């Protein structure tokens, strides 16, 4: 069976005029920010911003990741131990929720933020309730994120006013009338991905700040790619350690352009990353299977690439034993969800569209990490040591090679 990159089906001639859930992501009513609680976090891209921003390099992150400086007992994050706060684990291996107003991310010292980095790098996912984060303003959010590394400017998503590095996701309030039109030509709207894996230096941490959320539903589901790698046989692990996979934002850009959304960062990337990566702090291996952006396996025939990628779709996304669901729990929960993109996939869920709900409105701080690498083949170009120019890892689109 042929492997299809997510979003590519829309551009077949028989589908081009039909409804597509991903296309709707880039549609914004001109008056939308008049009907939200935090209008500063819902700014359309201005025409003069098109092509204004460049991509960042981050060549020293492997050794500068803040988790290297964290305390293994998290004594700066939880001075009296985590048990001083109301908390529970989402699963034994992945995710911890803290629901306690006395614990505030905004009040962490630098050493506390170092511990937070290490906490996310070991637990993978943190769900923090009763936070004052969203009321601190965009300047605070930007400075908080920059402590962990350079911030990503998304090519085609909405953002906060005058803060392009704060990505905005928005689904407007509505009634059950939207359900039939939304799913007119699709049975699903999920989109498994690791944030901006198409970049040469993809994301390390994401901080997802709830501004408004439905009372139930609209949650984010996560997959642990460490465990997905562990479940493979040693023979397949060793084989996958040698593979390089091509990631691209080409269909994301096409969908945005079709919806009339300008691109702040111009151009389609075709970037090479190893299929298995090593975490720079913990040393753990994980698959780096960002379903939303992967195009094909490099160096093998098309049918062989399809076989490998279709196996990974089934293996990675079909096993509930290494998935957890982070509940958003409505606007009043004041949630901040934070995770490590290097070994997690995630997707939003739009399971609330048959009900009357308010807005689903969040902003995201996206921190850039190291260039993915492993101990067998190095990075996507086979380099065992990081470094080089901005063009490293970017290849000519396959269609232009023929």
TrEMBL record:
Residues 376-402 are annotated as: Disordered. Residues 88-366 form the TauD/TfdA-like domain. Keywords: Dioxygenase, Iron, Metal-binding, Oxidoreductase. Transmembrane segments: none annotated. InterPro entries: AtsK-like, TauD-like_sf, TauD/TfdA-like. One of its GO terms (molecular function) is metal ion binding. Residues 381-393 have a biased composition (Basic and acidic residues). GO terms for cellular component: cytoplasm. One of its GO terms (biological process) is sulfur compound catabolic process. It comes from the Eukaryota. It holds the Pfam family TauD. Gene3D superfamilies: Clavaminate synthase-like. Its cofactor is Fe(2+). Belongs to the TfdA dioxygenase family. This is TauD/TfdA-like domain-containing protein. It comes from Diutina rugosa (Yeast).
